[in-house]
Design brief:
The chain is mainly α. The chain has 43 helices and 16 strands.
Amino acid sequence: MPTDKENSMTNVEQAEKFWQQLLTAPSLTADDKKLAAQYSELLKLAFSRSAFLAETLIQKPSFLSHVIGFQSLKPKTPQKNQTQNTSEQDDALPVDLNEVQQNAPPKPYVDSDAQHISSEYESVLKGKLSDVSNEDDLLNVLREYRNQEMARITFLDTLNKQTIESSLIQVSALADVLITQAYLWIYHHLAIRYGKPQSGNQDMHMYILGMGKLGGKELNFSSDIDLIFAYPEKGETQGGRKSLENQQFFTKVAQKLIQALNKVTNDGQVYRVDMRLRPFGDSGPLVMHFAAFEDYYQDQGRHWERFAMVKARIINDDNSQNAVWLQSILHPFTFRRYLDFTTLDALRNMKKLIATEIRRRRLNNNIKLGAGGIREVEFFAQSFQLIHGGREPALQSKSLLRTLTALSELGIVESNVTEQLKHDYLFLRKVEHTLQQSQDRQTQTLPEAPWQQSALTEVMGYNTYAEFLKQLDATMARIHGHFNELVEESHETHSDEDQLFTACQDAWRLPLQEDEFAETFSDYLSAADSSGIYIALKTFKDKQRNYRIGQKGEDTLNKLLPEILYVLINQHPNHAAQVLNRLLGVIEAITGRTTYLDLLLENPDVLKQLVKLCERSDWIAQEIKRFPLLLDELLTPLYLGQQNTDIHTSKKEYQLELRETMLRIEQDDVEMLMDGLRQFKLCQQLRIAASDISDSLPINNVSDKLTVLAEVILEHAVNAAWMQMRERYGVPSHLEGNEKGFAVIGYGKLGGYELGYGSDLDLVFLHNAPRGISTDGKKSLEAQQFYIKLAQRIMHLLNTKTLFGQLYETDLRLRPSGNAGLLCCHVDGFEKYQTEEAWTWEHQALVRARAICGDVELLEDFNRVRSTILTQKRDKQALATDVCKMRLKMREHLLAKNNEKVDLKQCVGGITDIEFMAQYFVLANAQSVESMTTYPDNLRIFDSAVQGNIISAETATKLQRAYLKLREQYHHLTLADTKYADQSEELDAIREEVTRHWDNLFGKCSE
């Protein structure tokens, strides 16, 4: 990684530094040194533009002859173009530096050239792998060959000796060959032990689907690769020392292939491998047989998966019937014969998603993801492929450039538009290649270091960086214009006769006095509302004078404020002035981000929804003010009245949506991972709250949804932490397959399905590693230490405060020995502690404990321990005394001394009293009525108590109603952004009812 000193260097200084390092490289031979000296000017020029090239040649000077051109791959050219008197050296590169700098690359490669290059790559790599006998050597050969060829491609690209099309073809062909040859080596070496899967007396293979740019043969220089694996059918291997089911065999092949490509060694990695596009994502099997594959896409395939499949290509296509079979599965899913409206809706939603991401991530300097970036050209082409591809075979191409050509040939898009898009797309791809070739990093962000800016300017053929930026801005503006025209929606406007809107415009734009304002709105507002709104607007105007928001921002604000007033007055909210103050608080927070002002201006329904939410909840208004990304959520009409799904459906929906969200984030980008999880939680929580305050969602359903939302996020955080730990330390050696030997237990409100909006998570972490076990990575750790670090990593992902707040506040104090105990405890130690050392209050806590996620075997062990502890025989009188003492102690420490307001949780007759009664019923009766341990939530505990003849149905109903009413009030206090409830007759009656049941059960508690 360049240091600050290196970043301040000029290109020439950077190149000279690299040149001197090359000349003093320990492995530089005399012949290589002579060759380097002969081409010193070209090498220095290339070094000034690519640190990756320089560092590769310094490390491997033996690559020099290949990179410079003595052994470089060149397309076969017709005999008539060959000159007998021209040496291979001169054909490869001119010595004349001026010719290089004229930016006049040769003609692009054609299909036959691509096939030739692919064949050349395959021939060379096959030869190198023929003598490889172990996996370490396999990894070395793959990386060395990858680095050699990428250095050659970089040399030609940075000197503009080939077109960007040629470069894309070579990079893609190289990826195909590296993936396929690695797969074949692994397949044949595993087959020696296990035999080979068979299909009709033929060897059966696993087919590798390349997605995205790899599928389109348009791979970028430092790309990761998205892969999906599938094999034809079930069965067993034959001919080996130990037979395996095909699923097991191909899973082993897939795991080793991913490791061969993805593992970071001293020579780097071949490719970062991303498997998240496979059916069911990270939770799905690594490999699927065709029948399961087909079932998934027929029954569960989603719109975004259709979009992804447009580019899917079989990397190792052997032209067999099995390959045809796989294509026949994917084709009808991807390309529909008849257009349905859901496709258009899906495209609109994806388009909104792109616009949303640009707003949220402020991707101004990103040539791929920013407005007018590469992604928008891809979306343009793929949208037409989804709409028309089922009827027009020419639009089923994996290649973006061919698709654009087909669109003009079919008369779907004007030829001048497609030609401009092609030109602009290739311009951006050249920029992208140059950025990535600088340091072999996957970046699409414009550089800040002066030497990188100079390198980019030179390669792109401009005199100054400012001149380049001007062209880039014009290019991206053209692309964004075409993108915006896709699947457009109409917007309503006001008529000239709309007197209220005219009044709203005057109220904002004219310097009205308060009496003039009141007269203007006399037909629409009460005197009190008119006065309050006037003061709020005037205060906001005065504040705005202190902000510099630019002409565009000012113009948008001048259009938006009358619209806000118009919607506010039309919706006749209670406390209109208070609602306007909340709204203006949101506007003030987004004043510097004109994209959000545009969002409200261009989407009247979003503005109406915002007014409605600000009227009903100050908490929601404050959340949107703190996190303006929540405004994007209002684009989807899912909020008021459409959230009432059962807990299992909700969890499945959250899993699918989180998977889709996280696919847009690089797996190794921890910062983006944390932001992505926080954004997801904020957005889902807003949906639940919006439905809650509309009274369309019962209180127990609110808690159900908040609880399963936490479960889904927690499971993802655990998986992410596990991957980060595995990458660094390997995994404990006692594990097999996908086991983690780890489990998360939820206590309190998480365990009891009773989470609220501000609830923290009470967690306990367990593992099952035998004593003396260590991890199998290069940096080995004792297993207990590994699991402690894993717990710390999970806590870091959950607790860290970022720009989008904290994911969840977590509390681990309920683990054995509390804060003095290990962060992650062995399940046997957990059982011993609960049996021999735990206090009564810890057994009370265990009533509400529940297995959340982890290995099935370990979760079953926890459930067994929980049942054993809860069904112990107990002295009921001693138990009642312990419960009473703990309740008094809690009230003494936690109950606020405020006679005017009521703490619904800690007050006498409050939520905690009801929870303690439920816990007592379990601990006192579970030995004789084991069904009392089945559920961790209070409502169903009371139901179980009725079924076990412990309490009457009347008592259960009264306690359940009181509990739901108190929790509903508690939720709404959170939404109102306050902690304590006002005294009321209804609340007094509920508390008296609960206290009566408490006294009947325990008597009057005293120390």
